[in-house]
Amino acid sequence: MVGLAIVYGIFAPYVAKSFFPTGSGAMSMIATFAAFAVGYVARPLGGLVLSHFGDRFGRRAAFQLSLVVMTMTTAGMALMPTYESIGVIASIAFVAAVSVVGLLSVVATIVGRTRAPVRSSQVTAEEG
Questions:
Q1: Is 39 exposed, middle or buried (0-12, 13-18, 19+ CB in 10 A)?
Q2: Which of 63, 67, 42 is nearest to 112 (CA)?
Q3: How far is residue 105's CA from residue 84's CA, in Å, rounded to a whole number?
Q4: How many whole angstroms separate alpha carbon 45 and alpha carbon 86?
């Protein structure tokens, strides 16, 4: 979490200039951090939706789907036209991309930190 905050802090001025240009640099930074906050707010909703997907199709499938879509979305953010090129659509598309990454990042967190349940056939005499 701290590493992500550092990355956001480093890239925030560039994102503000590219996607949220206003007359004031402070307002651009506030809009940028608000866009990043959308991703954090979307995480619980992603947990609700994708936990159902993981229960139905397996954690591995949920994890793989989230990684593929997060990778494509992040690449899309890197290749996205700026505000100067397409106007306010760039800002809307950036916020949408951040929210998609926020929705799916919870699966990577949950799957990466949980362990598969131990089956009774795997328990040895020393463990059980």
A1: buried
A2: 63
A3: 29
A4: 30
Q: Provide the whole-model pTM.
A: 0.74
Q: Which of 26-30, 96-100, 118-122 has the least mean pLDDT?
A: 118-122
Contact 28, 21 (CB under 8 A): yes
Locate tokens 């979305």: which residue?
A: 73
Q: Is 34 exposed, middle or buried (0-12, 13-18, 19+ CB in 10 A)?
A: exposed
Distance set, CA 57 to CA 5, 60, 92 (Å): 32, 8, 32
Angstrom distance (rounded) from CA 86 to CA 110: 37
Whether 107 and 55 have beta carbons less than 8 Å apart is answered as: no
The residue among 11, 13, 5 whose CA lies nearest residue 30 is 13
Q: What is the mean pLDDT of the chain?
A: 80
Chain position carrying tokens 């793989």: 64
